[in-house]
Design a protein that fits this description.
Order of helices and strands of chain A: EEEEEEEEEEE
Strand content of chain A: over 45%
Shape of chain B: globular
Order of helices and strands of chain B: EEEEEEEEEEE
Structural class of chain A: mainly beta
Largest sheet of chain A: 7 strands, mixed
Radius of gyration of chain B: 13 Å
Largest interface: A-B, 21 and 18 residues
Helix content of chain A: under 10%
Oligomer: heterodimer
Helix content of chain B: under 10%
Distance between the termini of chain B: 41 Å
Amino acid sequence: GAVVSQHPSRVICKSGTSVKIECRSLDFQATTMFWYRQFPKQSLMLMATSNEGSKATYEQGVEKDKFLINHASLTLSTLTVTSAHPEDSSFYICSAPYFQETQYFGPGTRLLVL
Amino acid sequence: AQRVTQPEKLLSVFKGAPVELKCNYSYSGSPELFWYVQYSRQRLQLLLRHISRESIKGFTADLNKGETSFHLKKPFAQEEDSAMYYCALKGLGQGGKLIFGQGTELSVKP
């Protein structure tokens, strides 16, 4: 089946710094990828839709200047958390649809902001 | 508004007992419904989708448009079924984005 990877798997940073998370589709192309945020034993909250070659579409309440998304190629989307603060600590998950059907999820990135 | 509701945060059963994880949705149209499962320390993965009408790992789910429900059922739970289960909805013409329910933790005790 299709595989989606994320890097890094976990990151610890100081408050005020920026952190970049990569999402890659390893054996298929994805013109669209999705970024979610998940709190422990809670639901996945859709943050934004990443579109290859165009601007990302953000969900209501998500700050686009805070969470920068770049979909530079058909296999790579990046999420940059700018000027991170402790409240940004969370589990970030990306997904990509395969043949516009099933979505395949990455393993997630755990961000801890000190 | 599009919404997926899973009323149970935790469902605890004994091995061999029947299981039903509830899911209700709100969507003005014909949605696609999915069940995703997340085992401990693993990524989210698709369990089943309503249009396939299939049984995976003994689980089935029937879309009831009248009751706007998509409950997940298994007649005899196994310990390895213990996981987080998420019901999700995909609306038409929305680029494939999924709206997830709150999730239900299933705990199957020996």
